[in-house]
Amino acid sequence: MDSDRGARTALIVGAGVAGLAAVIALAREGWQVEIAEVGPPDATSGWGLCLTGPSLRALDALGLADACLAEGYGMSTITHVDVRGEPAGLIRLPRLIGARRPAMAGIARPVLHRILYAEAERWGVAVRHGVTAAAVDQDEELVRVRLSDGTVRTVALLVGADGIRSSTRGLLRLASSRAFHGQMVWRALVPRPRWATGIHQFAGRAGTAGLVPVSDRQAYVFLTENGVGRDVLPDAELAPRLRNLLEPFPGRVAEVLLLISASAAVVRRPVLTDFVDGAWNRGGAVVIGDAAHAPAPQMASGAALAIEDGLVLARELARHDSVDAGLQAFVRRRGQRCRTLVETSVTIVALERARRHDETYPLVDSCHRLMAEPM
After folding, report:
1. Rounded to an integer, what distance in angstroms lies between the CA atom of residue 288 and that of residue 129?
2. Strands 266-275 and 281-282
């Protein structure tokens, strides 16, 4: 996809939530866009995620909120349960896309990616799998990208949306502050209990667990394991270990534990955060999503920031005469919002590790309300 000088051409590195949101938003603004994704098709990892209010608001602007609500599970509350198994608080989240639609939605990751891929294809976006950016050179107006298969793209805009371990960020020499926080997060797909009509979060004496519906029939259970290193367990040990970790929790967690016995697959990942201090862009190249700002999962807002990034990026580029000016405006507009979310998530991790669960509840509530403000 070589471009003439001044043409609106873009290469997006990474076909995750941030990358797909960006290509859809850019294509809607008339950009000619291509995605380079190092992984194979249908390689989505993880079981599910929560599309909070800001996620749905951004998806609604892209015309996709109703499709996600139709295939996910709409909900509007977070129920906190204390270490005795007693209710500790109910958070009613603001409905950002209308009083008749839910405040948020759980959705299976493969379903969300299928919806985003289909919309990208509808706009004529080309997706190349098995390749990524290997080298980047820039002049005053264009970005020359050599891909890992040796082919070259010359574009007006390069977007690195390749996650917390972004290679594009390294090619642009952007420094970040990745940190591991002594937690591992577990997730397993289970049948949805009838009582699970919103998010339930359970405080434990050694960790935190929860349940998020992703459809009428399914939910995913999550657990944060405190005070552990970044070890890797054999697959055969994951389900038994997760059940053991859930056993000390009182109340309805016992029912969730029984459901995991029917789960054929469990994922376990380190809790990492990252943030690019200073500019996220160099010339006509920029990083977005987890490549720029990766929060811990406790605020369930990583997807919201990623989708918002794609939408705001396209809008700022449309408002400015040059790519460089548009990217600078994008970074100014997004920096503090994303930093606040990352720093709040780190604070929540520290409170969980100190078993100060009561202090996390108002913090989660206030941060969700902050995220509900205009992006």
Report:
1. 20
2. unpaired
Burial 296-312 (b: 16+ CB within 10 A, else e): bbbbbbbbbbbbbbbbb
Quick one: DSSP state of residue 196?
-
Work out the end-to-end distance of the chain between its first and last CA atoms, rounded to an integer number of angstroms: 32
Q: State yes or no: pLDDT of 2 exceeds 70.
A: no
Q: What is the chain's alpha carbon radius of gyration, rounded to the nearest angstrom?
A: 20
Q: Are strands 199-203 and 143-147 parallel, antiparallel or unpaired?
A: unpaired
Under a CB-based contact definition with an 8 Å cutoff, are residues 215 and 108 in contact? yes
**pLDDT for 148-204, tens place per residue?**
999 999 999 999 999 999 999 999 999 999 999 999 999 999 999 999 999 999 998
At 264, give phi and psi (nearest 5°): -80, -15
> In the chain, what are the domains?
9-51+58-72+105-178+273-354 (3.50.50.60)
CA 364 from chain centre, in angstroms, equals 17
Q: Check: CB of residue 342 under 8 Å from CB of residue 295.
A: yes
Give residue-wise pLDDT tens across range 281-311. 999 999 999 999 999 998 888 999 999 999 9
Model confidence at 42: pLDDT above 80: no
Helix (H, G, I), strand (E, B) or coil at 218: strand
Per the CB < 8 A criterion, the answer to whether 253 and 86 are in contact is no
Q: Which residue has the tokens 């369930």?
A: 300
Q: How many residues does the chain have?
A: 375
Q: Does residue 285 contact residue 138 with C-beta atoms inside 8 Å?
A: yes
* Strand-pair partners of 266: 188
336-349 exposure pattern, b = at least 16 Cβ within 10 A, e = fewer:
ebbeebbebbbbbb
Measured CA distances, 12 to 238, 295, 333, 366 (Å): 35, 22, 20, 34
Segment 220-247 shows an average pLDDT of 92
What pLDDT score was predicted for residue 4? Answer: 45
d(CA 359, CA 334): 27
374 token code pair: 């205009």
Name residues whose C-beta falls within 8 Å of residue 177's C-beta, 6 or more positions apart in sequence: 274, 275, 277
